[in-house]
Amino acid sequence: MSVELIAYGCFFLTVALTYAIMCLGLNLQWGQTGLFNVGIAGFVAIGAYVSAILTTPDTAGRLGGFGLPMAVGWLGGALAAALVSYLVGRLTIRLRADYLAIATFGIAAAVQLCALNLEPITGGPFGIGFIPRPFAAQAGNPLLFSLFNLALLITVVLLLYFALERLVRSPWGRVLRAIREDETAALALGKSATRFRLQAFAIGGGIMGLAGAAQAHFIGFIAPENYLPMLTFQVWAMLIVGGSGNNRGAILGAVLVWGIWAVSAALIAAVFDPGQQARAASLQIALIGVAICAVLLLRPQGILGEMRTVSRHLGTLAKRTQPAEKRPE
Amino acid sequence: MNPQVLVDGLIAGAMYGLGAIGVTLTYSILRFANFAHSELLTFGAYAALALSSALGVLSAGLLAPIGPFSFGWSLPLAAIAAMALTGLLALAVDAVLFGRLRVRRSSIIVMVMASFGAALTLRSLLEFVFTSKPAYFTRELQIALPLGGGMRATPDQLLALAVAVLLVVAVHLLLTRTAIGRSMRAVSENQALAGVVGVDVRKVIRVVWLLGAALACVAGIMAGLLVQLRPYMGFDLLLPLFAAAILGGIGSVPGAMLAGLIVGLAEAGTVQLIGAEWRTAVAFVILVLVLLLRPQGLLGRPQA
C-alpha cells in the first residue's frame, strides 16, 4: 500500500471520528433522553468558532489574538456550546416535545446568521483561517502528521466513549432512560424530569461543541457554510443507522455513513460531467433522507440496537431488548 | 419610518399566514410538527410552474397577461391542478411513511424525525429535477400602483393579499360551520374519544392532509409569484411559518393569520431599522419571545 493511500485512510477516519463525537453527543440527547435536537450544526459551529477565536493569532479587524493553547480552545468551545444548549433547553424543555425541535432549528439558523454577519467576531463569510493544527511540527511529513492526528482523535473518542458508558450505567443514566420511557413513573419516584433532561441536553450540546472545535483545528479553517443544516441531517442519519441509544452504534454509524457519503461523492465525480455534479449531489442528500425514513420504518433500532443496561452490580445483560430498564434506584 | 414598510410587511405576512394555517391545522390534528410542510409548499409551486408552462405550450393565448396582472390564465388553471397534485403527494407520503408509523403508535418525536427525512428527500429530488437555478412564473414587469400615503403595491401583491384573506375566511368557516370541520376539531381535541363517538378518524386525517397541502401549494405559488421559485424556498420559510403557527396558537386559524401578519410586519420593520441581513433572525426572536412569555400563543388555549 502506498503512503498516500494510508495517509488518505487516516484523513478519512479522522474526519469520520469528528462526526462520531457529534453522534455521541446526539446519542446522549436523543438516544438516552429522547430530546430531539435539529440544530446540531449550530452547536458544532459555536464550538468551532469559540475555539478558533481563543487560539488563533491576532488578525486585523477581528476579535481574537488570544493565542491560547489548543486544549483551552477545545474546552472553551465545549463549554460555550453547553451553555447555549442549557439556555435553549431552559426555554423549551418544559413545553411540548416538538417545541424543542423547532427552537433548536431556530438556533442553528441564528448561529449561521451571526457567523455570516458579525464580521468583527467571526470573520463573516470568509470565516477564520490559520487555526493552529495539532502536531503542526510534523506537517512536512504527511504520513506521520495524519497518523498523529488520527491517534489524537481516537484517544478523544475513546475517552468520551468510556466516560459516556460510565455515565449511562450510573444511576443518573438510569433516571434519564426512566424519564424517556415513562415520565409519570419517574416523577412519582421523585425525579425532576426537567432537571435531568436539561443536564443531558447541555452535556450533549457541549460534546457537539467539542466535536466542532476538534474539526476546526484538524482542518485549520472554518467558514459559515461548513455549518449548514446538511450537517445536522448527516449526524442524524449516522446515529439512526448506527443505532440510537448505543454509543458503539453512534461511532459505527458515523464511520459507516461518512464512508458511504465519501464513496458516493467520488462516484458522482467520476460518473457525471462537471456541469452536472452540483445537481447530482442533491441525489446524495436524497439518499440520506431516504436512509433516515427507511431505518425508522424497517429497523427502528439501527444496526446495533440499544443494550439493556441495569445496575452494574447486577452485570450487563447483553440482550437487545426494546424496553429499557425502567426502575431508577 | 417609511409607510411602505406596512405594505411590504402585510404582503409577506399574508403569505406567512397562509402557510402557517396549513402548519397549524396539520399540527393540531395530526399532532406533530411536520417539517416536510415546507416541501409541500415548494412542490406545489414547482408543480404549478411545470403545468403552467405545459399549458402555455399547448395554447400561447393562455400566457397573455390577464388585465393588470403579470400572468395569464395558464397560472390559475395550473394552480388548481397543482393543489390536487400536492394533496396527492401528501396522501402518498402519509401512506408510505406517517400512516405506518401512526399504526405502530410511534411517539410524536419519531414522526417529527420521519418528517425530517421526508423533507430532505423531497427537497433534494426537487433540486435534482428543477436544478437550484431560480425560476419564475412570468417575466412580465409590473409597475407598482400608488395606494396613497406614499405606499405602493403591484397588482400581483394586492391579489395575493385578497386571496389570503379569502382563504382564511373559507377555512375558518369550514372548521366552524360544516360537519367535516366539526369532526376535525373533535379529532384535534381527543382522537380516541372522537373515534368512539363515530367520527371516521382516518377520513379526517385524509382531509387534513389534502387541505393542508392545498394551502401550502397556494402559499408556495404566491411566494413564487412575488419572489421566485427555488428548491429551498419552502425550507427558508419554515422558521417564519413555525413561528407564526406557535405565536398564533397551535390549532387556531385566525391566530395563524394574525401571527403571520405580525411576523411579516416585524421582518419588514427590521429590514428598515436594522438591516436586511438580519431579516431571517426576526422569526427566531419572535419564537423565543412566545415560548418565554406565552407558550400557548396569542389565540391558543393552554396545552393539556
Provide key terms for this protein.
heterodimer; A: 329 residues; mainly alpha; 12 helices; globular; disordered C terminus; B: 304 residues; ABC transporter involved in vitamin B12 uptake, BtuC; two-stranded antiparallel sheet
Beta strands of chain B, count: 2
Number of helices of chain A: 12
Order of helices and strands of chain B: HHHHEEHHHHHHH
Strand arrangement within the widest β-sheet of chain B reads 1-2
Structural class of chain B: mainly alpha
User: Biggest sheet of chain B, open or closed, and with what strands and sense?
Assistant: 2 strands, antiparallel
Structure class of chain A: mainly alpha
Strand-residue proportion of chain A = under 5%
Radius of gyration of chain B: 19 Å
* Oligomer kind: heterodimer
Give a brief rundown of this model.
The complex is a heterodimer of chains A (329) and B (304). By secondary structure, chain A is an all-alpha fold. Chain A is 70% helix and 0% strand.
